[in-house]
Each structure stands twice: as structure tokens, then as C-alpha cells.
Amino acid sequence: MEIDIQVCDDFEVTGTGDARVWQDLPWTSLSKLGNGALDYQTQFKIAYSNTGVYFLFDCEDSKLSCTIEEDMANLFTEDVIEVFLWPDEMHAVYFEYEISPLNFELPLCVTNSGDSFRGWLPWHYGGDRCCRHETSVQGGERSPGASVDSWKTEFFIPFTLMTGMGNISPKAGSKWRANFYRIDHDNEQLTQWAWCLDIDNNFHDFKNFGSLNFV
After folding, report:
1. Has residue 147 got a pLDDT over 90?
2. What residue numbers bound the domain in which 28 lies?
3. Hey, how many other C-beta atoms are within 10 angstroms of the C-beta on 129?
4. CATH code, domain with 36
5. Each residue's pLDDT tens digit, 3-15
């Protein structure tokens, strides 16, 4: 599975998806993993600039099943969007980014031997090394347990945050491996979605990620 990523100028992240660049890009859908009970639609768009990669996710929902209100926490235990980026296939090291509907984030560098993996928080996470992120809610309030119709998240991952990995300054013709996920816990039932389904319910099966083609 692969997707082409168009180049763009840098722009402000608002969480609404109203930036001009998104209007010309197609949506790509996530598909449900396993037998989860929820049938929410989830779709995303991607673009890249000279400084990093932009993402927009649109998530149908009925309840914000999340209570965590701090960054760098275990966001994956509640409603969340997760992005996995593997720029350099020569090394088993990739970047993971998680964001909740409440706009809290978890950026990680992940080392994975195949038998085990470990996530590491970024050092000196500030300035141009910081991700920019925002969320918005449709049909309700952005608060724990709120009833909603959907929520969106828009975020920017700077190339400088991935310094030390190879191939982190992509240009036309470059390729990264990647996958994208959503987790939802409405009605105390776990449902998961993914872009590339070859991972067999293992989010960290990086060797079976899809491909991002920079154009």
C-alpha cells in the first residue's frame, strides 16, 4: 500500500482543516482492524514542506472516551490517533506520534529489535523541534466524556525532531515507510483502525508498513 505526498508551503495549524493546501488533496480512509463493534469513518490527508510533514485526520465519533489531560502520558489507553514514520529502512528505528481528541500529545522515538521494542521521549523538546498540534470537535464540546458528532486533529512533525535518523530531509522521489492508526473506546469496547492492514493487529510491525512517496 502506498500514497503520494504533495509538497506545500508552511502554514498555521488550527485543528479545523481549513488551510488552503488541504482543499486540493484527496482523503484516504482507515479500515477497521479485527472485530471491533464501532463503525466510525476515519480519513486523513498528508502534505510536506521543507521543514516537516503536515497531517489532517477527520474522525467520526459519538463520545470522547478520554480522560488524560497531560502530554507525554499513556494516550494509547484511550481515544487516540497514532502516526508511525520509518524514514530509513536501514535501521530498526522509527518515529511514533500520538494525539488525543483533547489535544494532548505523545512523541516517541522507537527502537525495535523484532522481539521487543521501546519508546523514548525526545530530549530538548522545544523551539523548532516541537510538533505543532491542534484539535477541534464537531457537535459537542472538547472535554472528557463529551457527546460529539466527530473530531479533527491537525498537526505538524518537524524534520528536526527526527535528527539522528537517516533520510529525514525528503525531496521529490524520496520514500518513507509509515502506518496510521486510530483507537476508540466508546461503550467500553475497543475498536481499532489502520491504513495498511498487513500488520496483523500489531501496530509496531514496521516491516509491513505502507509507503509514502514524496512528489
Report:
1. yes
2. 2-214
3. 16
4. 2.60.40.1190
5. 999 999 999 999 9
